[in-house]
Write the structure tokens for this entry.
Amino acid sequence: MALGFAVLLLIISILLWNYARDASNRTYDLLLAGASLAVLDRVSSGPSGISVDLPYSAMEILGLAPEDRVIYRVFSDRDGEITGTPGLPVPRDADLGSAPVFYDAELDEPFRFVQQGRQLTTPTGRVWVGVQIGQTRAGRTAQQKSLFLNGMAGLGVVSLIGLGFVWLAIRVALAPLRQLAEALRLRDPADLSQIDGAPPREIRGLFDSINDFMRRLRANRTLTETFIADVAHQTRTSLSALQGQLSLAGDATTFDDMAVRVAKADSQARRTVRLTNQLLAHAMVTHRSDTGTLRPVALKPIVTEVLTDMLRDSDMRGVTVTLSADSILPGEDIVRGDAISIREALSNLLENARRHGPADNTIDVTLETTGEADVSLIVEDAGPGIAPADRARATERFTSIARDTAGSGLGLSIVRAVVDSHDGRLVLGTSSAGGLRAELRFRRLLSQAAARAVMAVTICCALFIVPAPATAQAQTTLTIASATDSDVMTALIARFEDLNPDVTVDYVEYQTVDLHQAILNAVPQDMPDVVISSAMDLQVDLVNRGLALPLDIPAATRLPGWATWRSELFGFTFEPAVIVYNTDLIPPGTLPQEHLELVNYIRRNEMALNRRIGIYDLRRSGIGYLFATQDVVQGLQASRMTEVLTRANVRNYCCTSEMIAATSRAELALAVNVIGSYALAAAARDPRIGIHFMGDYNLVMSRTGFVPRTARHPDAGRRFLSFLLDDGQTILASQSDLIPILPVPGAESSPWRDLSAHAGSFLPIKLGPGLLTYLDDRKKANFLEGWDQPARPLGTR
């Protein structure tokens, strides 16, 4: 019943697996459908053609499956590609229409796609615009497994309960069997009579089988008793004859008569000894056939050993014995057998040949293969042989065909018992010399081809198992491509090299945009081992393209959810965007607390702040572009901020250090969205630099790192990222201007006090597909164009 339940569970599990797959597809297909509708809703037609403003909400919808990569494409049947990844697979046998079409496709990993379209009216007529959005299947697979395992757990509990009821039912239904067991236990061992009773129909077959076994056991006991009686009769007769001859010898009156009687007594004693030995051999062979002693044995050594022993016997003088086994190759004489039983059978054949043959008898022993599967042991003599009509009877117990050389009648019976126990054949015939030809045919374990194959495999294994000479561990050069100033990473790298003496770090510094482009263009042999950047959106783009290696880093489980993605991208710093101002030009505490009030403040002080506000050059700075786009996501005040910055003739800078230096020299009164870790460190050294946190929100970014899939030393890269999230956090808190993302016990520096005072206003930027929105080519071009037109910065640095 348990096996039946298992089969049933297997069938149900297949159905449940398919149901779970369909259910997870339906759930996640809603995300794809929602995202496609959001994109299609932002498609429009204008004088310059069809355009699309990729909505942030579309990527945020897809971000509800946090472990999945996304890919998209917007196109029209007239103009072709509009934006996104070109050349995505299309569904088969499905035309572009307003109804969503879901399908699976294989890129670098399995993807699930939706294709949906809408018609637009353009000056040249109606045009179909379509959108394709793809999502990897990690989230679907996880939900499918969850549904399946939960369902199987319930089925498992129900099955255990069902098995309990089945056990109880079977126990009650088979109660008569316990009665049968008790009756057999109390029965006398000599009682082999039939079991009486009227059992239930379900177990009547068992009663009949037991009664049939009793019948066969009774018959076997009868045969055993008959054999014992025959043995007793043969032994008693032989001993009586021996006693008679000895009595006559004792009654003889002359020496000659006594000598004749003693000679006959000696002959009778030999026959008695042989009979006893044959009886013991027959019993031994029968016993060994019942004890399962069959093992792989080679016949040739057994035959050689038996012939060697017999040639030492004085009775073999004058008898010529030959052995022919040259045609047997090594391994071809291996059979599954019992060496002792085979030796006994061969000894009996040789003894029979000697006894029944003439004084100058010739005994030929041959070992040869028969067909593809058998090996034969043949014994031929020059004796009288056995007539074909008597050959079947000659193998019966206590049957002797030749009266003049009558023996115990057990020789051939022992041979047949040995052959039967080996599942072989005994074939009796006429030898070339006219005597008896006895062939013992056994089944081989290995054919010639199999034996050669085993030998070849053994030799090959021996060659490959030879251990290779040990080589010294090579020094590993870990290449880190980073958009972080090298001076703030020096302490981290030095400590990592101390902990890993087999690794030397090669640190290469980039600007964020240049780093992103370098990774996209890198060939496998030039790919770094670790990529670190503060531009979270550009890092997400690289990971979303499938360039990152999934890593198992235990310390990553302590990271906040916004700072890790797909077990491939890991944040290791906590860096808010702050406003840096010159304390000589702007008194501390005078800057407003909300972004809308900051817009009004700049508007009121437009003349004083003219050309004295610094911002990032969004085309050159990935972190600047990230902060700017995230401000847009937060509300409409971003566009107002752009307007007032334009009127104040802002200056563009490539990086944080230049804006801080310009603020310290009073070239700038303030700089917006400066990286907080650098700003706090600079403020601690220079009293002219003030740090201002907004009260409504302060964007927080994290420097992130990943190991590329084609990294030359991925293990060393994994160790470095693990170090950053473990011991590296302490180094960041004590020996670096960067701020660790995880709390470090005992770290009570001034930056920490400043951060803790504004903890409620921090708004972390979440790693995920949402950051891809403003990396869309069309949307990025429109955003930068809209930024450039009102900004028209003067004195660009």
About this structure: Residues 575-698+767-791 form a domain with the D-Maltodextrin-Binding Protein; domain 2 fold (CATH 3.40.190.10). Residues 465-471, 790-797 have pLDDT under 50 and may be disordered. The CA atoms of residues 532 and 705 lie 4 Å apart. The two ends are 82 Å apart (CA to CA).
